[in-house]
Amino acid sequence: MISYPIHTENSPLQAIDTSFSHYVEQRKKDTGIHMNGSVPDYAFALDYELRRKLDQIPHFMNLCKKITSTIETRQLQQINQYALQVGPNQFPEIYEMGLDCAHRLGIGIPNIYIENNPLMNAYTCASDDTSPLLVLYTGIVDRMTPGELKAVIGHECGHIQNRHLVYQNVINMLLNSASSAPGLTGLLLSLANISLMQFWTRAAEVTADRAGMICADSIQDALTANAKLASGGTLNTSYQQTMDLSSIHDQLAMTLDNPTRMLEITNTHPAFARRIFCDKEFEQCDVLYSWRPDMKKPGLTLRSKEETDERCKKLVNIIKNK
Fold first, then answer.
1. Fewer CB atoms < 10 Å away: N or C end of the chain?
2. Are strands 39-40 and 83-85 parallel, antiparallel or unpaired?
3. Which residues, 6+ apart, have CB-to-CB distance to 149 below 8 Å?
4. CA atoms of 271 and 287, how far apart (whole Å)
5. Pairwise CA distance, residues 279 & 249, whole Å
6. CB count, 10 Å around CB of 310?
7. Sign of the dihedral defined by the CA atoms of residues 167, 291, 287, 148, in that order
8. Is 97:150 a contact under the CB 8 Å cutoff?
9. In the 3-class helix/strand/coil scheme, how is the chain assigned residue by residue?
10. 36 to each of 33, 44, 59, 117, how far by Cα in Å?
């Protein structure tokens, strides 16, 4: 065998820093223009405002991250026993979706698992965005198109980037402590705190939906993904069914005008009609196209982030809807 000397002193590869630390720094630089401190610029105002108040509590975030890190480690070990991990050689298409979403948002590549569960659901657990856990149920994998599934993965990556689970785990513990107070006091504290908590989680879902739109291959994929979650996945070609925005708008009008909307006060997610039209509002927001200039259609009139958030507040507000 003939060996040839390699002249590394003249190699163009020498100038390339392939270290992980360089990758992290480059990732922060690429997404830094979209960050307000630790919060991305697409975050829904109602979500951002509460988190900003929590961040002002000394040592609160460090406590949240330590608690969530413990939970995350346990969940990762458990899910590894009864679910299949997505990777380059196993469900490679889904792996590429996660890779693309992570790179676009500027977070670490998630550890994606597929769990055998017929429900249409997905969830995350992450103490930071370095190596988060993301679980997809088979029900959602089977019933979504690849484009819609990518929007769902982007939504979950939005939860990771915004550290929603970090806050939620600790807030849940605080709620449980409040509910342990004796008698009527404990009951009233529990009801008040649960209402406040669910109000925030509904706002957090709007933020995550926006991340899903940013990561999706098309805005339509993000819209139909939410519609499929409402319909149980029946929006497919075999039934010749399509999402009709005018029909969904009629449903939204019924919701806003009916006192039964108060039943949503204990829900963790906004009604799907509300979510879909919050997505439609974000479709006209200038922030979306600062992330995805390739999605902008000619002649599209854009609104500011502030105006978009005000319009979305009216859509998700249960008490006042006028």
1. N
2. unpaired
3. 94, 97, 136, 140, 141, 225
4. 24
5. 13
6. 13
7. negative
8. yes
9. CCCCCCCHHHCHHHHCCCCHHHHHHHHHHHHHHHEECCEECCCCHHHHHHHHHHHCCCCHHHHHHHHHHHHHHHHHHHHHHHEEECECCECHHHHHHHHHHHHHHCCCCCEEEEECCCCCCEEEECCCCCCCEEEEEHHHHHHCCHHHHHHHHHHHHHHHHCCHHHHHHHHHHHHHHHHCCCHHHHHHHHHHHHHHHHHHHHHHHHHHHHHHHHHCCCHHHHHHHHHHHHHCCCCCHHHCCCCCHHHHHHHHHHHHHCHHHHHHHHCCCCCHHHHHHHHHHHCCEHHHHHHCHHHCCCCCCCECHHHHHHHHHHHHCCCCCC
10. 8, 13, 20, 37
For the record, the structure tokens of 174 come out as: 């605080």
Question: Residue-wise pLDDT tens for the chain (322 aa)?
Answer: 555 454 545 555 555 555 545 555 655 566 678 888 778 999 999 999 888 877 777 777 777 777 788 888 888 889 999 999 999 999 999 999 999 999 999 999 999 999 999 999 999 988 777 778 999 999 999 999 999 999 999 999 999 999 888 887 777 776 665 555 555 444 444 444 555 677 788 999 999 999 999 999 999 999 999 988 877 766 554 554 577 878 877 887 777 777 767 667 667 788 888 899 999 999 999 999 999 999 999 999 999 999 999 999 999 887 765 5
Look up residue 2 and give its amino acid: I
Phi-psi bin for 168: left (phi > 0), alpha (psi -120 to 50), beta? alpha
Q: Give the residue carrying structure tokens 């507000």.
A: 317
